[in-house]
């Protein structure tokens, strides 16, 4: 029973890991392809965000290893597992920004569900990791939303 519950948690963690991986690539797309009057600001912001994604992606993978799970580690797995969809090409500056906000909110929601699952199975350290990630993402949602306003 305990093993089964832990497996469910690890599977859910791998979905969020895949979301970070897809977001990491997608934020590069935005960094390279964004165009418009706010290019310098947005180009730099998306770089900051993909650096954040890289850090959180690795942090989560290492947490999965710490609890004796197996983090997904191939693009094939990430594309199968992720709930965040791959980037479309191009788009207006405001659309690219709105898309980023939408993705960050979706990730927050997934992380919240997984944090709850971790709490339910008594893995407070994993829940704590997710809660930290949620707080940082929520701040980024606020910053991007203020830019769009
Ligand atoms: Fe760059």
TrEMBL record:
Query: Ferritin/DPS domain: which residues?
Result: 11-148
InterPro entries, A to Z: DPS_DNA-bd, DPS_DNA-bd_CS, Ferritin-like, Ferritin-like_SF, Ferritin_DPS_dom
SUPFAM superfamilies, sorted? Ferritin-like
Q: Which domain of life is it from?
A: Bacteria
Q: Give the record's family classification.
A: Belongs to the Dps family.
Give the protein name, as stated in the record. Answer: DNA starvation/stationary phase protection protein
UniProt source species: Cohnella yongneupensis
Taxonomy of the source species: Bacteria, Bacillati, Bacillota, Bacilli, Bacillales
